[in-house]
Design a protein that fits this description.
Layout (H helix, E strand, L loop, with lengths): L21 E9 L5 E10 L8 E7 L6 E7 L7 E4 L8 H10 L13 E9 L14 E7 L2 E4 L10 E10 L5 E8 L7 E9 L4
Antiparallel strand pairs: 1-2, 3-4, 5-9, 6-9, 7-8, 7-10, 10-11
């Protein structure tokens, strides 16, 4: 019930500088669970923003009244990585020793925000649902932790895909839940849901 809402939410996106990405933002109005209406959209060219500083932007909504006020910072990303199984970041014993030293009890108050990190090896899926008329699917896997999201590549025409990828996330809240979702890529259409599992970090 507001024409001037304040959300004060922060989202982290992993942006790789070799890509020419646009940040697309949409504002929606929800009357009830069934009815939603688009109130406007705007776009931000990430490559045009100065790095290592917070940019305050007032973005007018296209073809609609109103604007969005946002703070956007493009900063070097630490602690997040995607790699192949054969070059797993924790495979080196020396690196494991350095990490053990970094998170030992005597260093636990050196950086309160540095809780630790989570490394996930996404190997494969088995007996997925067929989403295409051909009796196959084009599955990819999405991992979400807090506001961090990473995903695998798509394996086409396969119900038993093998991804063999290693994902590393910095942990900001020990009470976060890792959500792993498998989707079927469907061209220009939204992907089809194939399944999901949620893993609380405290259960690891």
């Amino acid at each position: 019930k507001s024409a001037n809402p304040q959300w004060r939410e922060q989202f982290d996106f992993h942006y790789f500088s070799d890509r020419k990405d646009m940040l697309d933002i949409e504002v929606w109005r929800k009357d009830n669970k069934k009815h939603e209406e688009l109130l406007g959209r705007c776009h931000v060219d990430i490559t045009a923003l100065p790095t290592k500083q917070t940019n305050c932007l007032e973005l007018p909504l296209e073809k609609h009244p109103g604007s969005l006020l946002m703070l956007i910072a493009v900063a070097p990303c630490t602690g997040v990585s995607i790699s192949d199984l054969c070059v797993c970041p924790l495979g080196d014993p020396n690196e494991r020793q350095q990490i053990s030293q970094r998170y030992c009890i005597k260093n636990s108050f050196r950086d309160i925000k540095d809780i630790g990190f989570l490394q996930v090896k996404v190997l494969k899926a088995v007996d997925l649902m067929a989403a295409d008329f051909s009796g196959k699917s084009d599955p990819f896997c999405v991992l979400e932790l807090g506001n961090d999201m990473l995903q695998t590549h798509t394996v086409y025409k396969n119900l038993n895909p093998e991804w063999n990828k290693v994902f590393t996330f910095p942990i900001k809240d020990i009470h976060d839940v890792l959500e792993v979702t498998v989707f079927d890529e469907d061209g220009d259409k939204p992907p089809d849901f194939l399944g999901k599992v949620a893993i609380p970090l405290l259960s690891v």
